[in-house]
């Protein structure tokens, strides 16, 4: 009987040793998973910061684009106003030229007959 009891104790010791090894292995896996999880959290925080920076950059670009659009519209109005003024000046010059040509045509017979 002593031998049977001793055999059972040896088996129990082996089983407890295996359990301890299994628990140690599980603990190592748990520690590794926890480290991976911590790294993933850090990566998520970094990604959130990057996304925030990208959004800020996008907002700045949008502001710059809106400013450029306003500047372009202002320049367009100024150029159009200048062209309108030039067109009015051209029309006035043509009117004066036509008027002067008519006046010259009226005066030609008098100038050439007086000689």
Key structural traits:
single chain; 115 residues; mainly alpha; 1 helix; rod-shaped
Topology:
Blueprint: H1 2-114
Question: Overview of this structure, please?
Answer:
By secondary structure, this protein is mostly helical. The protein has one helix spanning 2-114. The protein is rod-shaped, with a radius of gyration of 49 Å. It starts with a helix and ends with a helix. The mean pLDDT is 93.
Head-to-tail CA distance between termini:
164 Å
The H/E string reads H
- Sheet-strand content, in percent, reads under 5%
Shape: rod-shaped
Number of helices: 1
How much helix is in the residues?
over 70%
Q: Unreliable runs, pLDDT <50, ≥5 residues?
A: none
The biggest beta sheet is recorded as: none
Structural class: mainly alpha
Mean pLDDT: 93
Work out the number of β strands.
0
Radius of gyration: 49 Å
Could you provide a short overview of the structure?
With 115 residues, the chain is mainly α. Helix content is 98%, strand content 0%.
């Amino acid at each position: 009987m002593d031998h049977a009891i001793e055999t059972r104790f040896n088996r129990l010791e082996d089983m407890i040793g295996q359990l301890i090894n299994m628990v140690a292995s599980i603990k190592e896996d748990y520690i590794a998973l926890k480290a991976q999880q911590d790294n993933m959290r850090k990566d998520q925080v970094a990604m959130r910061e990057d996304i925030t920076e990208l959004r800020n950059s996008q907002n700045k670009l949008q502001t710059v684009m809106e400013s450029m659009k306003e500047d372009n519209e202002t320049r367009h109005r100024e150029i159009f106003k200048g062209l309108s003024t030039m067109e009015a000046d051209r029309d006035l010059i043509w009117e004066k030229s036509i008027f002067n040509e008519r006046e010259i045509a009226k005066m030609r017979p008098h100038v050439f007959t007086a000689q």
